[in-house]
Every structure is written in C-alpha cells, then in structure tokens.
Amino acid sequence: MDTPLINGLLEYIKQNNIPFHMPGHKNNAKEFKELNIIQENIFNMDLTEVEGVDNLHSPEGIIKDAQGKLSKCLKSKESFMLVNGSTAGIYSMILGLTKPKDKIIIQRNCHRSVYSAAFLGDLEVEYINPTILNDFNIPVSINLDEAFKVIEKNKDAKAIVVTYPTYYGTCFDLKGLVEYAHRFNMLVLVDEAHGAHFPFNSKLPESAMELGADVSVNSFHKTLPSLTQTAVLNVNYGVDSTGIKYMLRIFQSTSPSYILMASIDAARNIMEGEGEKLLDDVIGYIEDFKREIKNIDGLKILDEDYIGIADIYDIDKTRIVINSNLGGKTLENILRREQGIQVEMSDLYNIVLIGSVGDKKEFYDNLKLSLLKIKDKVQGHINIDIISGYDVNYQKVLSLRDAYYMPKRRVRIKEAKGLISAEMVVPYPPGIPVLAPGEIITQDIIDLINEYKANGITLNGIDDASGEYILVVNGG
Q: How many whole angstroms separate alpha carbon 91 and alpha carbon 60?
C-alpha cells in the first residue's frame, strides 16, 4: 500500500516491543471488556452529534451523565471530558480564570502548555524554581519556604500553576502550598497530567482535588486504560467554572471524537470497579523488580528512599526512573534494539518507564532479565559527566508575549550568550522548556542545549529544529 504512516505503524507493531510507555491501556494486553467493546464497534461509534448521542459542548444526555460519574469518582464539583489532550485543559483552566495582564506564578519546570497559555493570555509570569535531585540531575519538587517567598512578593498574583506529580513521579507538599496560597485568595491550578491514577489506590499520593487544589487536569491516556488524547479537567468546590467552560468551547474541537470520549468512560468504569486491585498488582510487580535490580552497580533507582531529599514529599510507586552510567539515551537504545523493550522517555542520564493497570507481570520479568543481561555493559562503563541540567539561573527580562512580538534576528546558538531569546527551546520529552521567550541566553543554557543535541534528544518549540540557530530579540 502507498500509505507510509500505516506501513510504518504496522512495521512497529510487528516488532512486538514491550510497552513501558503511554498510553496506559498497553495495547489492551489485559483484555478489558470495556475496551474490547469499543474496538469491536470502532467504526459504528465514530459518530457526529446526531439525536441520542448528546453534544460535548452543551451536554444534556449521555455525555452529561458520563461527566457526572467522572466528577463523583474524582471528588470534584465538576469534571469535563477532554479530547484535545491535557493541553486543551491547561489552556482552559488558566485562561478561563484570568484576564490579560493578570499575574500568575509558575513552577519553572511546568510543561510547555503552561507557558503557551501565559503567552496566549498575555499574562505576567513569575517563577518558582524547582529543587534538583543531584543523584539523577532532574527537577523533582519545590521548596515550600521558597514558594512562600515568591507568593509574598507577588500577592497580586491571580493564580499559581504547579506540576504534581512530575514526569519522574515525584511530588511536593501540595496541601501545604494550597493552604498558604489560599490565605491570599490565590487560585492553585494543577497540571496533574501524570497523576490520573492517584484517586484509585490508597498506596499512591493523594490527588490534587483531595488536597484542596482549585482546578486540576488529568491525562487519562498517560496512566489509565484510555486512548491517546483523552484527559479530564476537574473543578473544585468554590470555583466559578463559567470562564473555563467558555474556553473549553474555544480550545476543544467542534467535532469531538465519540471513540475518545467512550474510552474515558471505559477507563473510569474499569478503575472504579477494579482500580484498587489492579494498581496493587502493578505496584507489587514494580516493588519486586526494584528489589531485584537495586544492587546492580552503575544503576540507581528513584524510590521511596529519596523521600525527604530535595524536598520530595511523596513518590508515585507506579513510575520507574533508572539512572545509568551509560546515560539515558544509550540505555534506551540498548533496551529497544537488543531487548525489545520501549521505555517512555530518556533524558541525558535517566530512563523513565510508565507502569499502569494495563501491564502484565511478564513485562517486568522481561525488563529485569534484560537489565541483568546488560549489567556488564553498565558496570564496565565510566560514569558520564554531570552537567548542570535544570539547575540553571533563569533570568527573565521581558514577558513571553513582548519577546515574541518584538523585532527578531537569527543568530547561531553558540554566539547567543547574553542575548534575549525570542522563542522557546523544549527538549521532548518531557516537554519542559530550558529556555523561554524573554529570558537571557546564558552559557549554562547554551551548554545544555548542545548536550541535548549531542545525545539526539529532540528540541521542540524552536524554529530551527537542528538547534544550530535561535531567534533573539533584535537589539537585545
């Protein structure tokens, strides 16, 4: 067939790689009956807003009922289905609760969608810098004392936007932040994309809704048995959702997929009925796996032993982060090419694997055996040099919007030290900007970008995807 996309997907399927990545249904390896029903009826369910199937943008029937069940399940006042991914939810929660020129406080390691929302809304941004876990060289939390100082200096901020949990499964003391922010009538908006499974098992961190956050966004497809692009926006009691609903009508497709919405409904039903047991199983698989490989020289596992370090308050037990002497990208490539295991992502030093209720025990048995097979490569490798990573001194001198719309020029990144960036540089995954419009380009940032390039990590958001050139503010 002359269908390059279809052909490429079929070729990948033939490789039969073990999926330690999203979506959380993991190819429906567990044969959930709800997902089987969708698969069997996929073309018949691909509908438009005909009589009897309701309308996402003004639900009165089955969609309203499904969202009501989501709300009850997730302990919110209201929950809204998202078919344009968590990004549509992030845009809607921020822009639905602010107006142009409002100030918001952002955790500096938020996903790029938070920055995009600030740009679209013409918002003034102040940052809370994350804490860095040195053993893994990753941002993992925020220091509450530092966060409180930022709040004290910016009491006029309308909201504070945070990430809970991080891509690496680490959590900060969200309840403590919520209680402090609310003293100043400041909304707490949470990108909880990687924590959709939290409400369904008592061994996991509490959800943002349970901890008193005002609005949260969950990516169902990341950790639950739901299809890619599916997410849910949750609004807590005491928050007026009028603006959020208006923005959802702007940022969501006017032709929402009933297949995607059906998979949200399916995932909620699966988790309500079996979630505690299913998550107990996968947590057990992961705990056994960690015990087996924890003593391999050259590997480090991010586990509960790190709680209390770098302000880590809690850890998602379904997330696996492995630091390797080989470096993240090299270890990812070895596992894929030699062992048939596909991880979720790799950064300069680590690999990240997503566990979910869709996993089978043999996935973890194979992962353990694969790492044992290559332990000589790991142990015999000289530890890679550690550079500063996310622990850089970000210097914001212009707003995101002003920097973008000012006259620009293109320069080589290696010659950009001291200039003001006019675009965003986002290693992907995880999608956290290392440079945003309006920030000074420092030598640390140049070195970090070059390190990403050297390791084959994709740079998003930048016009020159090769990372050779960057747009800067003219005269800046």
A: 24
**For residues 348 and 330, is the Cβ–Cβ distance under 8 A?**
no
Q: Establish whether the linkage from the previous residue to 205 is cis, with ω within 30° of 0.
A: no
Length of the chain as a residue count: 476
Q: Which fold does the domain 4-22+277-379 belong to in CATH?
A: Aspartate Aminotransferase, domain 1 (3.90.1150)
Identify the CATH assignment for 400-473 out of 3.20.20.70, 3.40.50.300, 3.90.105.10, 3.90.1150.10: 3.90.105.10
User: For residue range 182-201, what is the model confidence (pLDDT) as tens digits?
Assistant: 999 999 999 999 999 999 99
* Nearest Cα to Cα of residue 430 among 459, 399, 407: 459
pLDDT-based confidence at 382, cuts 50/70/90?
low
- The residues pairing with 217 across neighbouring beta strands, listed in sequence order, are 191, 233
Name the class of domain 34-267: alpha beta
Cis omega before residue 430 (within 30°)? yes
Q: Is 204 exposed, middle or buried (0-12, 13-18, 19+ CB in 10 A)?
A: buried
Instruction: Look at residue 461 in the predicted model and tell me its pLDDT.
Output: 81
